Automatic annotation (TrEMBL):
Domain DUF1996: 90-276
InterPro entries reported in the protein's UniProt record: DUF1996 (IPR018535)
Superkingdom, taxonomy of origin: Bacteria
Protein's recorded name: DUF1996 domain-containing protein
A Pfam family matched in the record: DUF1996
Species annotation: Pilimelia terevasa
């Protein structure tokens, strides 16, 4: 799962395409996140989407003879049930987490501080293909109307649409990932740790090739999009690692996996929002991260039933576009 661009070179290898299904969901409706006549346009964390350069590089690269060029898209809703909490079952299992950093979930309906693989596998799901996996990211809030940036108590914005897609590999077939595989993308501490893992990708529904690590000011009627492109090169042994990253890493710029890793389906999650015109928005962040858009991140824990996953892998390796 990969995707993005400047200014961070590690992002230039990530996927820039949006599936037809994703575009269909993300383009619909919306009151518009921003008007050009913003009263205070000088906030450094915001940028007019028209000022963001379009991507010129192509991803994926020209596929090889055995490439898995297919896709598999399915729906897990948009958190209509209001499943949110401050736990992080991937990074800090067993802990409730800081109250000022709230995650939003789709998929598994039971994900919380005390979740285990077994409890999750036995729980319900919002996915239409019986996928019991959990997918989550920090909530998005409206900034205070007084122009301050303490958005900790701002109104949480429920997504207008969430699209999940698995992609194949441009260099060969993919293998099914194991149950319980943990995946992480982005860097919740990007402001203070140098941003080595930063992968924040923000854009607007009508400008998917203009991507930025700042909050985008979109035109009237255009949805704000958060794009999470997960790593897709598995070490073949572990479902987790000390930093929750070493066991599942990104591809190289040419689409190849590093030595001693194997290509698995690349997960892309697109979260779309209809936001009030003229209002700023902020991602929930740790106290010392100042709600920076660069701290955007997401997690996944794979518990997709084996028959469903086998169907998805078959679609990817056969070059078919499938829906779950």
């Amino acid at each position: 799962m990969q995707a993005t661009f400047p200014p961070h070179s590690d992002r230039q290898r990530r996927r820039v395409r949006l599936s037809a299904a994703a575009l269909a969901l993300t383009l619909v409706g919306g009151t518009g996140a921003w008007l050009a006549r913003d009263p205070t346009p000088d906030w450094p964390d915001y940028v007019d989407i028209g000022q963001v350069n379009q991507l010129t590089s192509t991803w994926p690269p020209t596929p090889g003879d055995t490439a898995g060029t297919g896709s598999y898209t399915w729906s897990c809703g948009r958190n209509e049930i209001g499943h949110r909490n401050s736990a992080n079952v991937v990074v800090t299992p067993g802990s409730t987490g800081p109250v000022h950093h709230t995650h939003e979930y789709v998929g598994n309906t039971s994900t919380g501080a005390d979740s285990t693989d077994a409890s999750l596998a036995a729980a319900g799901t919002t996915c239409d293909n019986d996928d019991r996996s959990t997918y989550y990211w920090p909530v998005l809030r409206l900034a205070p109307p007084d122009g301050g940036q303490d958005g900790q108590h701002g109104a949480i914005q429920t997504p207008a649409a969430v699209t999940l897609t698995l992609y194949g590999s441009p260099v060969g077939p993919v293998v099914a990932p194991p149950g319980g595989l943990r995946a992480a993308v982005g860097d919740a501490l990007a402001v203070t740790d140098g941003g080595r893992h930063a992968a924040a990708t923000w854009t607007c529904a009508d400008s998917p090739r203009r991507r930025t690590d700042r909050y985008p000011r979109c035109g009237p009627g255009q949805r704000v999009l958060r794009v999470f492109d997960f790593p897709s090169c598995w070490d073949g042994r572990r479902t987790d690692s000390r930093d929750h990253r070493e066991h599942l890493v990104p591809t190289a710029a040419d689409g190849h996996c590093p030595p001693r890793t194997f290509p698995v389906p690349q997960l892309q999650v697109i979260v779309a929002y209809d936001l009030p015109t003229g209002r700023r928005f902020l991602v929930d962040a740790f106290a010392d991260q100042n709600h920076s858009p660069r701290t955007d991140h997401a997690f996944a824990l794979n518990l997709m039933p084996a028959p469903v996953l086998a169907e998805a892998v078959s679609c990817l390796n056969a070059g078919r576009a499938c829906r779950g």
